[in-house]
Each structure stands twice: as C-alpha cells, then as structure tokens.
Amino acid sequence: MNVVLLDLAGDAGRARDWMDSWAPVANIELLDKAELKGGGKRAVLSRLRARGRADRFAIFCHRLDVQPSLAPMMFFGLLAGARRVRVGDAEGESVERGWIGVALVELPRLAAELAIGYGVVIPLAWLVTWWLGFRSTRRIRRAPPAGPLDILFLRATQAATSAVGGSTSHVAGTVSSFAELGHSVRFIANDRLLAVDHERMPVDVVPPDSGFRTVRAVFEVWNSLRFAWCARAIARTRPAPDLLYQRYSRFNAAGVWLALSLDRPLCLEFNGSEVWVARNWDPVGQRRLLAAIERLNLLAADRIVVVSDVLADACIRAGADPGRIVVNPNGADTERFRPGTGGGAIRSRLFPGDGLVAGFVGTFGPWHGVDVLADAIVRLPREVPVRFLLVGDGDRRTAVERRIADGGASDRVVFAGRIAHDEVPGYLDSCDILLSPHVPMPDGSAFFGSPTKLFEYMAMGKAIAASRLGQIADVLEDGISGVLLEPGSVDALVEAIERLAGDSKLRARLGLAARARVLESYTWLASARRALDFSERSRSGE
After folding, report:
1. Cβ distance 506 to 463 under 8 Å?
2. Domain range for 393
3. 60 and 190 in a common domain
4. Which of 117, 470, 481, 501 can bridge 514 by disulfide, Cβ–Cβ 3.0-4.6 Å?
5. pLDDT of 409-437, one tens digit each?
6. How far apart are CA 54 and CA 65, in angstroms?
7. Alpha helices for 95-162 (secondary structure H)
8. Are residues 415 and 465 in the same domain?
9. Do 370 and 507 share a domain, yes or no?
10. Helix 490-501 and helix 370-379: axis angle, to 10°?
C-alpha cells in the first residue's frame, strides 16, 4: 500500500508507529507540514497528483476530537489522488473517509460551522473585545498586597499540545519558583501540565471543545471565548486570588475578563506577538480580530512581563504604558540542569566508541536554525571526530532528516525525537558541545526571543556555539562564556564546531563561565522575583 503521511503533531516517530500499527505499507511519502502553510498547498497538490494515485492519505495529529481544519485536509487528500483519507491521533482514535463520507458527513458540517462561526462566533468575539476594552478604560489599576500571594495562573491553548518544549520549561520553572518564594499557585488551564506538581498547585481543566473545529480561526476564537467564560465561572466559586497571572495566547483575553469580574490585578506574561507569528510563521484567519485582542491585553494588564527589550519596545508601540513593562529574560533550573546528571549512560547507549558529541535540543521550527544545522552536519569534514545528537521534533524535522540523508551524514546523527522534560538534563549531559544556531527573523525585524534552551545549556556547564542574535549576544560573551557566530551562516557553524572539537581546555573554560553566569543572573528564582516585584519599573533583566 502506498501512503502519503502528513504529521500535524510534529512527532515523526509516533506518526510512523501509528502507520505501522494500522496496515502493512509498501511506501510512505512524508509530507512536510511546513509546505502547506501559506500559499504552498497548490504546489503540493500539483506535485502529488503528478506522481499518481496513492492508496491512502494519512494524517496524524495530537487529538482527533479537537484537531481543527480536518474537513479541508480530508478534501485536500482526496483531491491529491488518494482513494481514502485516514486521520488518527496519539491517543489511538481514528476515522477514515472516502469521497462519499466527506460529501455526506464532513461537507455539511463545514457548511453549518461556517454559517454559525462567521454569523455568530466571530461577531460575538468582536463584541466581547469591545466591551472588555470599554470597561478596562474605567477600571482602577492596583497592585497585589505585600507578602505571600494567592496566584491564579491562566494558561489557555486552543488545542492539545506537547508536554515538552521551552514553554513547558518556562511555566514549570516560573510556578515552582513562585512556590519557593512562599506564594501559593493554582491553575485554570486547557490541560494538565505534566511538568507541574499539581498536588501542590491544583488545576481546574477546561478542555478544548470540539465544536467549530472545521475552520481553524473559528475553532480558536470559540475556544478562547469558552475558556474565558468557564474560567470566570470557576474563579467565582473559589476565594478571590490576590493576583491573576496569564501566559498570553492567541485570541485569548481571559485574564482581562477575570480582572474585571474579580477586581484583581492582572500580570500578563507576553512572550511574543501572535499577530507577528500569524504573519510570518503560522498563518491563521481573523487577523484584525487577533490584533484587537492582543492590543486589549497589552492595554488592560496591570503589569506586562516580557523576555526581551525588543518585545518591550513592541509593546510600547502597541500603546502599552512603559511604566508597566518589565524585561525578564528566561532562565533555568540550576538544580535540575547541572553537570553529572547521567549523561554517561546515555552516551554509551547512543554513541558507543570514542569521539565527541555535539547536541541540539529544541523544536524543529522556523527560528531554531535546524536547516543551517543540517547543512553544517553534512559539510563538517569527516576527520573531525564529532557525532550529533538532535533531540526534539517539529515541522522541519522531515526536511532536516532528508537533508542529512541526502548529504550522506546519517551515520553520524542520532535523532532522539521528543523526550520528557525530566530526561533533558541527562541528554544534554551526554554532549561535549551544545548548539543554538538561531536564525534572523524572516521579515528582517529584530530578534525578540529569549531561548529557554540557551539558559539550560549554560546551566549544564558545557561549551556552547550560538548565533550572535539579540539577547543571545547579551547573555553569552564571545570567547568567555561561549562561541558566538554569524546567524544563518553554515560556514561559521562548521568553523565553531571544529574549533571547539579541537580544544578541550577551551570547552572546559567556556562551560564553567556559562554556568557561573546563569547562577549569577538567570535562575528561575531570580526571574520569579522580577516578575512579581510590582515596585520595579526597570527595563533591565539584570
């Protein structure tokens, strides 16, 4: 059987396992999710049709019941020439459709959701946004009381998400440090956070609703409204918190709604503009509404915590009061991320024999530089005794694997896939060199990130090669605590790897200095103090 496989979960290993458990497959063509974004669908469709009919078009996702845009994707698979389309998820659920099933089930649902979504849900979201904005202008701003705080943490994601990654590290590190400072934390979230101790920090779960999942923008808007409404109802049954803390997410203004309803201050954690992301990385409809909700959050919050000066400037341009903004770079748990966390056993299992190991941990996404890394691996001379450990998954993994295989370098690379956050320190500890080859922003704007993995790398006491971009170049000092290289340059990355591979004393010196830098300024505890110091009005993360 010939199958075209589209992995929407960003977990290629589990997607292949799902295919193997389904039916014997003679040939699998992996379809890169990134190719379908923006205007790429037509080109992909033409290419697939030109190759002839496939037996199945398979789609693997996190959770079938809340995966948006299924009907359009099923229709796409049939148009591409497949006889049938099968969709499955990581929890074992699946559905299969042919032309008749799509015509009788999916298309009527699509029509109904379009009518109700654009006739009711979107207008309602505009009305709620206007109403919250109007009320916010008349609200008296306040700071939380002094002393230990009862913090209600709001985390709303519109679909099932991975339990690994930088955002998970950030949330877990932040709330654990809040608790260490004597504050109590409780959650209202779309799912349980596996890296958080919910015995100490209880969570009320508002799972995404499967209604309106045919159109992605409508699905996200509907679930954002629903989350805010449910969160308000839950919060009103509990003692009012001293502080609302929301991690900003697309189309969501739950924190503003609860701040008005409970008359409590709102601290907004703003890690990047979703309007910018939609324009450059992850296209989504209803961008005018998205921009209006984002601006509402920035204007209504009593405190805005951003990870970089670039983001602070963006918030000010959007109308936020500079006096309410604090720059608070990401950090690391230096007890968990430290030398000697079991890397020897992992290294013996994955890389028997002599030689050095260079590691990368992160999302195979658009700004992490994984394409540059793939080219550097291929170009690195064979006489340089370095093998590579790539941990993580994402949209670009298929393309990276293909590029390394085509370059004849697969034998020196181990793809570990997704691993639990608790396992990450051991994998980093197994490496001699750690790589952070971030690339410039696609529209030429300033790099706004504060990569969590950079601080975790530093805490491991390893030599780091990283791009000279934005905050990365402020945190690492070239030749002192790391090696900085020209962003996007394959030659510069190859040269940095060769330099570090050939100098063990340099590696040791850089690693010691990097860990000392994290211990001095970039622990999650220091970050938590800055986030909750409402007397602070500094634009500096130091």
Report:
1. yes
2. 343-522
3. no
4. 481
5. 999 999 998 888 889 999 999 999 999 99
6. 26
7. 99-101, 107-116, 122-136
8. yes
9. yes
10. 60
Domain with 410 in it: what CATH number? Answer: 3.40.50.2000
- Burial level of 314, CB count in 10 A (0-12/13-18/19+)? buried
DSSP, collapsed to helix, strand or coil, labels residue 6 as strand
Instruction: Tally the domains of the chain.
Output: 3
In a domain, 105, yes or no: no
Q: Determine how β-strand 184-189 pairs with β-strand 386-391.
A: unpaired
Is the same domain home to 323 and 350? Answer: no
- The kind and range of the H/E element at 463 are strand 463-467
Per cent of the chain over pLDDT 70 is: 94
Q: Which two tokens stand for residue 517?
A: 């830098």
33-46 per-position pLDDT tens digit: 767 765 567 777 77
Q: How far is CA 116 from the centre of its chain?
A: 30
Which is nearest to 8 in space by CA: 411, 455, 398? Answer: 398
CB of 318 closer than 8 Å to CB of 298: yes
Q: Distance between CA 255 and CA 248 in Å, rounded? A: 9
Residue 101 tokens read as 């099933």
Residue 304 and residue 352 in one domain = no
CA–CA separation, 152 vs 186, rounded Å? 5
The reply to whether 289 and 409 lie within a common domain is no
Distance set, CA 420 to CA 35, 200, 330 (Å): 28, 20, 20
Domain end marker among 279, 302, 327? 327
- Kindly state whether residues 181 and 44 are assigned to the same domain: no
Whether residue 332 lies inside any domain: the answer is: no
Give 390-444 as a 3 state SS string: EECCCCCHHHHHHHHHHCCCHHHEEEEECCCHHHHHHHHHCCCEEEECCCCCCCC
Residue 30 lies in a domain: yes
Q: How far is CA 109 from CA 86, 97, 158, in A?
A: 18, 14, 20
Amino acid identity, position 312: A
Cα–Cα distance for residue pair 33/90, rounded to 1 Å: 17
Q: Which residues contact 456 (CB under 8 A, 6 or more apart)?
A: 169, 332, 337, 361, 424, 425, 428
Mode of pairing for the β-strands spanning 94-97 and 84-89 = antiparallel
| 3-class DSSP state of 486 | coil
Q: Is residue 400 part of a domain?
A: yes
> Could you tell me the pTM of the whole model?
0.87
Same-domain pairing of 210 and 238: yes
Domain end residue (candidates: 97, 120, 147): 97
176 with 201: CB under 8 angstroms? Answer: no
Amino acid at 206: V
